[in-house]
Amino acid sequence: MTANQTIDSAKLEIELIGKNIYQQTELRANLQARQQLEQEASQKRTKFDSDQYEALKKINAEYAKQAQMNAIAQTNADIKFGMNTSILSPEDVAIATQLKNIYPDVATALDSVQASGLRASRAMRDISSVVSGQLTTGLADIFDGTKSVKDGFASMSKVVIRAIEEMIIKLLIVGPLMRGLQSAAGGLFGGGGGGGIGNPTQIGSLYHSGGIVGEPTAMRSVDSSLFNFAPRLHGGLMPDEFPAILQKGEGVISRGDMAKGGSRPMVMNDNRVINIGQGASLETVEQLKKVLAEDRSQFANNVVKVVKIAQSGGHFR
User: Fold this and answer.
1) Which pLDDT does position 103 carry in this prediction?
2) What is the pLDDT of residues 172-193, one digit of tens each?
3) Are 58 and 169 in contact, with CB atoms under 8 Å apart?
4) Is 21:68 a contact under the CB 8 Å cutoff?
5) Residues 6+ apart with CB under 8 A from 61
6) Nearest C-alpha neighbor of 137 from the set 116, 122, 155, 125
7) Distance (Å, rounded) from C-alpha 33 to C-alpha 57?
8) Residue 45: how many other CB atoms lie within 10 Å
9) Is-contact 96 194, C-beta < 8 A?
10) How remote is the C-alpha of 305 from its chain's centroid?
11) Which pLDDT score is estimated for 58?
């Protein structure tokens, strides 16, 4: 790395302060690409390849988008996990955390065979720790005469029995009770997915001024209860789906129609008013409705055709 590149890197670190993941990722990638091209040009004694740099900037922008979406998804997952374990016992929280990569759903993780094995293992470890500590203390008391042999062993037995009782209470009463409270709280606050509290907030993208889903845009945190009664056509969001905030009167164009009709959503309004005089027959009204429907359909097709021609750089006929 040259001295100038070192300075540029130091300047970038200052520039990154206050930037979001998207901006940081894009700026870092662009600097790395530019420095690499500058180094290649210097070694080959050629001109800096501006075209390649612009192409790399487009790739970096896409990469930065993915990094931003990954960060949002990870934050939402962390919030959900925290809420879904908020009322659980410390033991179950530790188990859910350990099994998170195998069972993302907390309820499924805690009901798994692995969770049962972990509970039993930790309970035996706790008892072993108590027994070991009490045996050491009790025997020391007997050896130094603080307690008689009878009193020493009686004290050790009492503590061991207490430890076993506590283990049974944790496994059979406290644990199930806390999991039941967690499940009840999930139902109360609208959480889904197997008995946990859902996200307290949901990140929604704002498209009031237009835009393409998945591209950077303004975002807003909203109460997740707003999504409680939204139609659910499958389990959760797919990797290429996004929660969105829409305004009354706005329209949504499908990805297929976008491919046919242009790179940006369009809103077409047909505000014609037709006055029908008194005495017109129902047959006449129905015929007029049919003609208007056909006219509106043809109008939409013509708009799509015009947009396609414009995008291809062609001429209107």
Assistant:
1) 87
2) 787 778 777 777 766 544 444 4
3) no
4) yes
5) 26
6) 155
7) 8
8) 6
9) no
10) 38
11) 92
CA distance 195 to 98: 19
Q: What is the DSSP string of 65-95?
A: HHHHHHHHHHHHHHHHHHHHTTTS-HHHHHH
Can you give the pLDDT at residue 59? 92
CA distance 288 to 50: 59
CA angle 75, 81, 85 (to 5 degrees): 150
Tens of pLDDT, residues 247-306: 766 767 777 766 665 444 444 555 555 666 666 667 776 777 777 777 766 766 666 666
Q: Give the pLDDT of residue 191.
A: 47
CA distance linking residue 246 with residue 296, whole number of Å: 25
What's the full length of the chain, in residues?
317
Average pLDDT over residues 72-77: 87
Q: Return the amino acid letter for 36.
A: Q
Three-class SS state of 130: helix
Containing H/E element for 160? helix 149-169
CA distance 264 to 313: 17
- Kindly give, in sequence order, each residue whose CB lies less than 8 Å from that of residue 64, ignoring residues fewer than 6 positions away: 21, 22, 23, 25, 26, 29
146: which DSSP letter? S
Paired tokens of 144:
């130094």
Predicted confidence band of residue 226 (pLDDT cuts 50, 70, 90): low
